[in-house]
């Protein structure tokens, strides 16, 4: 299990390329592609997914993701905000690349963390940021408490982020995306035992693994049926068989979150 991506974890494109060719040497074949950020994903842009926000430190180093749900409100993970203050974080929209300087940088005037959040395996992994200035990007609608059918096992869920290419790997410079099927509660309980709290979490991933969020993707969106339905939260390793990604089950928190968004 891993928590917030260490901010020093940025590697250069050259280092990433070197690692990829080393992987080719080690596996003895180039036919098997190196693991891709959002493991198994493809590159995309902030233009294609304008609601995806970088959560950065005050020097604009991305460490988590977030979702724009109104011009001044961003939903992210509670575990991303632990130890942060309104002056230590920024929200960056419209920036496809971690090393970009374009887009819109907003300061944060309020950080709401679920009041009973303690750790990712105890649930409540949700936070809402209030921006000091508006983001000129299209927001994503978020689920209401009655949208629970979206989580039906096998539903197609989209994941997005700048996270690592593999467990313990390096972050992606470019935004990436993939789709993964949601997993039933019984199956996810089978994977994680009592660490999976069905009321607060939902799992997504293939039985055989291969596609997943990873470190640095936390706080970012799980989109189902055109709505923000989950928040990237945790998992054992990344993209491993039998260990799907675990996402905050947003329907459980939608009224609490709505109060923050409408305040
Ligand atoms: N906790 C990680 C983060 O802070 C996200 C891990 C997601 N892991 C997974 N296997 N889906 O970025």
TrEMBL record:
Which GO molecular function annotations are given, in alphabetical order? peptidase activity
**What superkingdom does the record give?**
Bacteria
Query: What sections of the protein cross the membrane?
Result: none
Cross-referenced SUPFAM superfamilies: Trypsin-like serine proteases (SSF50494)
**Is Protease one of the keywords UniProt gives this record?**
yes
Which Pfam families does this entry report, sorted A to Z? Trypsin
Q: Which GO terms describe its biological process?
A: proteolysis
Xref: PROSITE patterns: TAT, TRYPSIN_DOM, TRYPSIN_HIS, TRYPSIN_SER
Q: SMART domains attached here?
A: Tryp_SPc
- Keywords associated with the record: Disulfide bond, Hydrolase, Protease, Serine protease, Signal
Q: Where is the signal peptide?
A: 1-33
Q: Does the keyword Signal apply?
A: yes
- Ranges for the Peptidase S1 domain? 38-262
- CDD domains, A to Z: Tryp_SPc
- Which family is this sequence assigned to? Belongs to the peptidase S1 family.
Instruction: Kindly provide the name given to this protein in its UniProt entry.
Output: Serine protease
Name the species this protein comes from: Streptomyces lonegramiae
């Amino acid at each position: 299990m891993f928590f917030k991506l260490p901010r020093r974890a940025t590697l250069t494109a050259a280092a990433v390329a070197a690692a990829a060719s080393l992987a080719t040497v080690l596996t003895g074949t180039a036919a098997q592609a190196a693991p891709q950020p959002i493991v198994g994903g493809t590159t995309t842009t902030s233009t294609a997914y304008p609601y995806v926000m970088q959560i950065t430190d005050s020097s604009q180093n991305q460490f988590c993701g977030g979702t724009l749900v109104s011009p001044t409100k961003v939903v992210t993970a509670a575990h991303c905000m632990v130890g942060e203050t309104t002056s230590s974080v920024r929200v960056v929209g419209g920036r496809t690349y971690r090393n970009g300087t374009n887009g819109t940088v907003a300061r944060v005037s309020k950080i709401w963390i679920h009041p009973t959040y303690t750790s990712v395996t105890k649930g409540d992994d949700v936070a809402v940021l209030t921006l000091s200035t508006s983001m000129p990007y299209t927001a994503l609608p978020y689920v209401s408490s009655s949208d629970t059918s979206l989580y039906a096992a096998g539903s197609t869920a989209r994941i997005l982020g700048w996270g690592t290419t593999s467990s313990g790997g390096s972050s992606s410079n470019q935004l990436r995306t993939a789709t993964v099927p949601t997993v039933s509660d019984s199956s996810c309980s089978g994977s994680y035992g009592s660490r999976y709290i069905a009321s607060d979490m939902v799992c997504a991933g293939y039985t055989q693994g291969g596609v997943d969020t990873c470190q640095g993707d936390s706080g970012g969106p799980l989109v189902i049926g055109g709505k923000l339905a989950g928040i990237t939260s945790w998992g054992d390793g990344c993209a491993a068989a039998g260990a799907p990604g675990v996402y905050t089950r947003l329907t459980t928190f939608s009224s609490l979150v709505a109060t923050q968004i409408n305040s």
